[in-house]
Every structure is written in C-alpha cells, then in structure tokens.
Amino acid sequence: MEEEVSSGISFSPLVWVSKFQTMAREAYKSKPISHWVLLLLSSLGMLVAFPASSLLSRVYYANGGTSKWIISWVAVAGWPIPALILFPTYLFFNASPSPLNLYLFLSYVFLGFLSAADNLMYAYAYAYLPASTASLLASSSLVFSALFGFLIVKNKLNASMINAIVIITAAMALIALDSDSDRYASVSNSQYIWGFVWDILASALHGLIFALSELIFVKFLGRRSFHVVLEQQVMVSFLAFVFTTIGVIVNKDFQGMVSEAKTFKGGESAYNQVLIWGTITFQLGVLGGTAVLYLASTVMAGVLNAVRVPLTSIAAVILLHDPMSGFKILSLVITFWGFASYIYGTAPGTKLS
Q1: What topology in the membrane does the UniProt record assign (predicted)?
Q2: Which of 44, 59, 81, 112 is disulfide-compatible with 240, CB 3.0–4.6 A?
C-alpha cells in the first residue's frame, strides 16, 4: 500500500516540476557560464534570424522583386560569415583543419549542388505562397529528415517518431485543402499549386541533405567538434554559392537587379537592405542551429525548430498581414503537436526500434 502511495506521489505535477528544477540546476552547474551565454545567443539566432530570413524573402516578392535566382543567391552569399568564425578556431583553440581527400571534397560538391537546388525551390515557394503557409509547409522537412535518416544513415525510428511523421503529413494536407483562403490575388491558382509543390520538394531535399551530411560525419569525418561542423557548413555554403552564382549569371539576373531596384517599393535603399539583411539573417540562423546542435543536442535543436514555426507564422500575420484561416491555425497546432511527438521520440531513454 505504501509503495502504491509513493508511486502515485512520484508522478504528481509538483514532484515532477521539482525534479525538473533539480535537473536544470545540476545541468547549469555542470557547464561554465560562457557555455550558457553561447547557447542563449545560438538559440536566439535560430528563433530570430531564421524567421526574419523567411519574412525578408516574402518582403522581396511583395514589394516588386521577381527573381528566384537572386533570393536563392542571397541565402548563400553570406558564406564568409561562418568562415570568419571558423578561422579563429584554428588560431586560438588549437584546432586543426580536417584532411580534405577526394571523396570528402566530392561529397561537399554534391551537397553544395543540392543546397543550391534546395534554395532555388524555396525561392519559388516564397514567390507564390504567404510566408506563414510556406513556413508551415517547410516544417515537413522533419518528416523527410527522419525518413532519409532511417534509410541512409540507419537511424532508428520509434512509435513517437512515426506518429510525428503521420501528424505533420496530416497538417500539410489541411493546408492543401484550404488553398483558396490565403492565395494572393496576384498569384494564379496554378502558381499557388506550384508554390506548394516546390515547398514540399524543397523540404524533402532539405531532409536528404541533412541525412547525407550526417552520413559524411559517419563515413569520412568521424568526429563532431564545433570546428568540424563549421568546416562542413563553410564548404557546402561556398560551393552552393558557386553553383547559384553560375545560375544567376546564366539567367542574367545580376543585370536585372539594377532595374529591379529602381522599381522596388521603397526604392533602391530598401531593395539593398532586404537583400543584405536576408543574407545576414540566413547565415546567422544556420550558425545558430549548428551551435545548438554542438552545445546542446538534436533534441534542443528540434525544440527550437518547433518553436520557430509558429513564430514565423505569427510574425507573418502581424508584420505582413498574412491571411490566417481556421484551417491554417489548426494545421499550426497539429504541426506543433507533431514536433512534440518527434522530440519525445528522440529524447534520451525513449526506446527505439
């Protein structure tokens, strides 16, 4: 009888909160203050920079921008930013560059090409979809990351993770059923459909890139120190920048930037600011995600990724006056539920199959 009572008490909310507080205090004491400052800044990078980058992409199109290549180029033009952070690690932290053999280089080239294609697909999505809708659809990348991780890297899946895949897929279906409520008047029905398709394809490709990146660590690098993760980011971003720049040149979009800036709502200054801040925020978001993975865990990164989806949608409604129907709100709630299920499934101690 006493065992039953004590068992019941152990699951009471107050005891659970007390245990959580104890765990939090122990975790805080186990790391220096600099660790938590960096983690806070990295988390803010994910929660602020990524949504800002998404909104700026939509601002570009809403105010007269038309080039998909330029927006995809903006996403990788900031590749020197992580490089500026990487090089001091060699100078001041006794880190040594990872040996670059032919197979690793070709892997980076392939990932760079895929990343360039991924950014271009997302550019098409933001050209035709409201930022809130595009952000919700992009959350399906978690589904593809889990599936490709299972197929390529042989990561384990459990019931909670499979449940998350089903839930998020259902949320995407809800958005598809409600397409008429948030389509801009300037966007045709076929363009909206293509925007939807490009967003899902980009999310699938993003999931593939994530799985292949993990495979590179397993096969070629074998370590996950911060500077090694940065090396991969710099190389992939630089090569994606090269591929995208070639596309911009072939499409003659650099020449078109001059006339586009003149007709842009707000003038050339506003045009330049959108592109510059788009470049900075995207790279800061990626850097934040990289740092969170290193400083905390994939679960923490998943939590922040789950939080930034509603943040982006809410910010788009407030700042860009995106339409927010009941279906989209329901989809947002279901997506958050799916993220929670996935995070629970990846938490330590959860049984994997």
Answers
A1: Multi-pass membrane protein
A2: 112
Among candidate residues 241, 244, 291, 251, the one with its CA nearest the CA of residue 45? 291
* CB 317, CB 88: distance < 8 Å: no
Contacts of 36 (CB under 8 A, 6+ apart): 28
Cα first-last separation, the chain = 35
**Residue 235 is encoded by which pair of tokens?**
């190389």
* Cβ neighbourhood burial of 329 (10 Å; 0-12, 13-18, 19+): middle
Structure tokens at 58: 């939509």
Tokens of 107: 């892997």
The predicted-structure confidence for 109-153, as pLDDT tens digits, reads as follows 999 999 999 999 999 999 999 988 888 888 888 788 888 888 888
| pLDDT band of 81, cuts 50, 70, 90 | very high
Q: Find out whether 305 and 46 touch, Cβ atoms under 8 Å.
A: yes
Q: What is the CA radius of gyration of the chain?
A: 21
Residue 112 CA to residue 241 CA, distance in Å, equals 8
